[in-house]
UniProtKB/TrEMBL annotation:
Keywords: ATP-binding, Ligase, Magnesium, Metal-binding, Nucleotide-binding. It holds the Pfam family GSP_synth. It comes from the Bacteria. This is Glutathionylspermidine synthase family protein. Residues 12-382 form the Glutathionylspermidine synthase pre-ATP-grasp-like domain.
Length: 393
């Protein structure tokens, strides 16, 4: 694995706008950054990332039945009692799921280490599935990448196929919802709507704020039509804490992602995985946090947090790092395994699971070991080992 500088395309911004990637720059700072790319060998992709992704996904799925059947585990994951039967029933019915993202620390020199699962509202999807593939094709055509350069990326095709699988099980009408003023979330649901349409599954977009609730407890669109199925790019745990969400269990609404995904998007899953697969090469030691000072060599994370917020690192050398954010409540501790710096950049590998298959990666890099919401997306390629490189890990 190498980080290789490369000349950016002169028209990449125009291309981004043309295809709907309007959040390529956020608050004046680059989000999409193609001034470099990460190069992998095929062996690194297949053996160090793809195979472990499938295995970790299967281990996580293997825990769902145990968790939803245990009041004590649901309590430990801080899932409100009002929603537990609904979550368990969605699993018993095996309500189908669409996708998820596993976040790994990986530098090409050892086993990828799982940081967490983003299995409810994963983002960075469009840029991973579509725009970095477009970058690869353009850079091959320009001669800046070898003609045989490839990419671990069949995300788009997998999404279209998965929507085709879901079509017969989703009650109509299907709507796609996100917060109105989030350009990134709106861009993500626009992309997913297109993937669904390519599979023959058509659904309109709606702002989350425009969803209504009928007198008999069913969710409705702006025309007061009852919504049959809803893809919602909004955290389930936030709905659990909102009065508007209390109608969910009896509403008849089919959600994507399904309610049982709440147990996989919860960081409390990490100590449960470790307890049942202790010593697995792709897992980090983890335990439920009991409070107090964080020992050296550990990281504290809230059960529910996103985009690197409210993370506390106490590294083995005694140094500490902390990120601010809005999240509170119960936490876990995870053994510290800091990201490797590539010339001052810290990449985290997001491995995409669609259905139950690993189908591609996206890389976000930060200027610190904590990957925050300001991290940049950097493309990747599979190249021969003798391709030119300026620096290594």
């Amino acid at each position: 694995m190498r980080r290789i500088p490369i000349v950016e395309r002169g028209d990449w911004q125009a291309q981004a706008v043309e295809c709907g990637f309007r959040f390529h720059t956020i608050d004046g700072a680059r989000y999409w950054d193609e001034r470099a790319y990460y190069a992998f060998s095929m062996a690194q992709i297949e053996h160090d990332l793809e195979d472990p992704s499938v295995e970790v996904h299967q281990m996580a799925m293997g825990l769902v039945d145990e968790i939803v059947g245990s009041e004590s585990l649901m309590e430990q994951l801080a899932i409100p009692a009002h929603y537990r039967d609904w979550i368990a029933e969605s699993w018993r019915r095996r309500e189908p799921h669409l996708y998820g993202r596993l976040d790994f620390a990986y530098d090409g020199t050892g086993p990828a280490k799982l940081y967490e699962l983003n299995y409810d509202t994963p983002t960075s999807l469009f840029e991973a599935a579509f725009f970095q593939w477009q970058w690869l094709e353009d850079q091959r055509a320009s001669g800046r990448l070898p003609r045989d350069a490839d990419q671990f990326n069949s995300i788009h095709e997998a999404l279209v196929d998965r929507f085709a699988d879901l079509a017969s099980s989703l009650p109509p009408p299907l709507l796609f919802a996100a917060v109105r003023d989030s350009e990134e979330d709106q861009g993500t649901i626009a992309y997913l709507r297109d993937c669904a349409a390519q599979a023959g599954l058509h659904g309109a977009a709606i702002a989350l704020e425009d969803i209504g609730l009928s007198e008999d407890g069913r969710y409705t669109d702006l025309d007061d039509t009852v919504i049959g199925s809803l893809f919602k790019l909004y955290p389930l745990e936030d709905l659990f804490n909102d009065d508007f969400g209390r109608a969910l269990p009896k509403s008849g609404l089919r959600l994507i992602e399904p309610p049982w995904k709440a147990v996989l998007s919860n960081k409390g899953l990490l100590p449960l995985l470790w307890a049942r697969h202790r010593g697995h090469p792709n897992l980090l030691a983890a335990e439920f946090d009991t409070g107090g000072d964080l020992p050296a060599g550990w990281v504290r994370k809230p059960l529910h947090s996103r985009e690197g917020a409210n993370i506390e690192l106490h590294l083995a050398d005694g140094s500490r790092l902390h990120s601010d954010g809005p999240y509170a409540g119960p936490c876990i501790r995870q053994a510290a395994h800091p990201l490797t710096a590539f010339d001052g950049h810290y990449p985290m590998v997001g491995s995409w699971i669609v259905g139950d298959h690993a189908c591609g990666i996206g890389i976000r890099e930060d200027n610190s070991p904590i990957t925050r919401d300001s991290a940049r997306f950097v493309p990747h390629a599979i190249v021969e080992a003798d391709a030119p490189a300026t620096f290594y890990a």
